[in-house]
Design a protein that fits this description.
single chain; mainly alpha; three-stranded antiparallel β-sheet; two-stranded parallel ribbon; RNA-binding
RNA sequence: GGUUCCUUGGUCAAGCGGCUAAGACGUCGCCCUCUCACGGCGAAAACAGGAGUUCGAUUCUCCUAGGAACUACCA
């Protein structure tokens, strides 16, 4: 057992978008590849943004993706509690914040919202604010008096205005930031809750996290966290910042961007293994050309030193391709189970669903693709007579009419309505007429399906449709669509 | 605006001083074929620009340009 310990620390604000999912995945992989521990911590320090049921979504997502935490709210280890609101109640954060005040690394701030607002200014349409250290200069007496008077306060980190702060990231190397750029960020909010900035440092240390894996949006604030570790005299963890995942406009994926959450993808007919697999390859590549990886195979192969720095666009096309690969690799039973509900949306008749499922398996990328493909089994769609036209086989409506009229008595006499037998009938007829089988089959396909493109051969379709329905459809073609020719 | 990071085909990416610059998705073509798909074969398509360092830069350094992230009592 190695001593590597990572954590996934989401805040329960809704569905999990794929950027978060990938962070969780990389965090898991780094721990598991090293034989270490993977932990889940819930960061619910913002009561305003918290969403009912979001914790369940997180847990369910981790369950479905296989990213099972070794420690977490449901299976506590020795460093709990694993939910930050519970840690607040235990007084953990306040205790450490006060330690920082004693060291002069933090201070009480009693500034009102109005005063803070007055510090705000707008640049390029964006509002920016830098705290002016006003309360740093309060005397001991003033602070005491304010506290006694019950004035609301926050606790801020005290960052000097000179010098620079640097830290090491495993992916990005040394990052150095001038201190004057570092705001005196709030550590403890006026409601007594810690901010992410503070809770995260305290918890990661207390919970023994060795590798902090998180999104690259924290890269520029990481120096501030480093100052906190140093102020406490704690060992700084290994940082692994992951490159961003963006939409096709190259903007960070956010909850607002739509079909980008794990659950949205599941709803859209993607399988979770494919999602995990695809997302793993956004920002990391193996040594060889392999692209299909199970979670276990990822654990074996994942070396975080091969992570890339540049942001990656989430490409729905490739995601779909990969999902198609997983669908094709599914065993027929599993596929059948997942396909039936989709087929049932459009086919209510008592047909052989197993055969229909087999037809679509290599033709879809995502389950809802099935809908458009098999609707004609339920009901013959309206179609245009021009569909009978085919340049490759040189079929015209006139010729189609002859073929179908010729075939009708042969098919009516046909007993064995299996695909093979039916194909024989068509082939034999073609030979006697001295035409290619394709010439004969084309009109049959149109008549029987009302479509030029079908997920199966014409005779397979007839087999599923059954004799009565097939003949009925050929009659419809002759009487309704081809009567004028 | 400031700070930080990023920059190989449309997209994901390999490359870690010397290569005809991999591979995958997508696109296009051909083959297979009872249409479509699957499968097979093939094609088009990239080192942002400029200075250095070097015998030699996609690879190292600097500058420019472009993009992104951050800049909250959100995480």
């Amino acid at each position: 057992m190695s001593n590597v310990k990572t954590r996934f620390a989401p805040s329960p604000t809704g569905r999990m978008h794929v950027g978060n999912l990938r962070t969780a995945l990389y965090s898991y992989l780094i721990a598991k590849h090293a034989g270490g521990t993977f932990m889940l911590r819930i960061e619910d320090t913002d009561q305003n943004r918290e969403m009912e049921g979001a914790v369940d979504i997180i847990k369910r997502t981790m369950q479905e993706t296989g990213l099972i935490p070794d420690e977490g709210p449901d299976n506590p280890g020795t460093v709990g509690p694993y939910v930050q609101s519970e840690r607040v109640k235990a007084g953990i954060y306040m205790k450490y914040a006060k330690m920082l005040i004693e060291k002069g690394e933090a201070y009480y701030c009693f500034c009102t919202q109005e005063r803070l607002d007055s510090l705000r200014r707008e640049v390029d349409g964006k509002e920016i604010m830098m705290y002016d250290k006003h309360c740093l200069h309060l005397s001991k007496e003033e602070i005491e008096a304010n506290l006694k008077a019950g004035k609301p306060y926050v606790i801020r980190q005290n960052v000097p205005n000179e010098g620079t702060t640097k830290f090491e990231d495993e992916i990005y190397g040394t990052i150095e930031v001038p201190n004057e750029e570092l705001d005196d960020m709030v550590l403890i909010k006026s409601d007594g809750y810690p901010t992410y900035n503070f809770a995260n440092v305290v918890d990661d240390h207390l919970m023994g996290i060795t590798h902090v894996v998180r999104g690259n949006e924290y890269l520029s604030s990481a120096p501030k966290y480093n100052r906190l570790y140093k102020a406490f005299g704690w060992e700084v963890p290994t940082y692994v910042h992951c490159p961003l995942i963006t939409d096709e406009e190259h903007h960070k994926l956010s909850k607002r961007s739509g079909h980008s959450s794990f659950e949205d993808l599941l709803d859209g007919g993607f399988v979770s293994e494919a999602i995990v697999n695809y997302v793993a390859l956004l920002g990391w590549s193996p040594e060889d050309d392999r692209e299909i990886f199970s979670l276990q195979e990822l654990v074996e192969n994942f070396d975080y030193h091969r992570m890339s720095k540049s942001p990656a666009v989430f490409d729905m096309k490739k995601m779909r391709w990969m999902n198609g690969e997983y669908i094709k690799a599914m065993n027929p039973e599993t596929f059948y189970e997942r396909a039936v509900p989709e087929i049932r949306k459009v086919v209510t008749k008592d047909l052989d669903l197993k055969k229909i499922a087999d037809m679509v398996k290599t033709r879809i990328e995502v389950f809802p693709d099935i809908d458009d493909m098999v609707g004609f089994f339920e009901e013959l769609p309206e179609y245009d007579v021009s569909l009978f036209q085919n340049k490759k086989w040189k079929v015209t409506p006139e010729k189609a009419k002859k073929v179908l009229s010729d075939l009708l008595p042969l098919l009516e006499a046909q007993q064995d309505w299996s695909n093979d037998a039916l194909y024989e009938v068509l082939k034999t007829y073609s030979q006697s007429e001295e035409v290619k089988p394709g010439f004969t089959i084309w009109p049959v396909r149109i008549a029987v399906s009302g479509k030029q493109v079908t997920p199966a051969g014409a005779t397979e379709i007839m087999e599923v449709l059954g004799k009565d329905e097939s003949l009925l459809r050929i009659h419809v073609a002759l009487d309704r669509y081809l009567s004028d020719f």
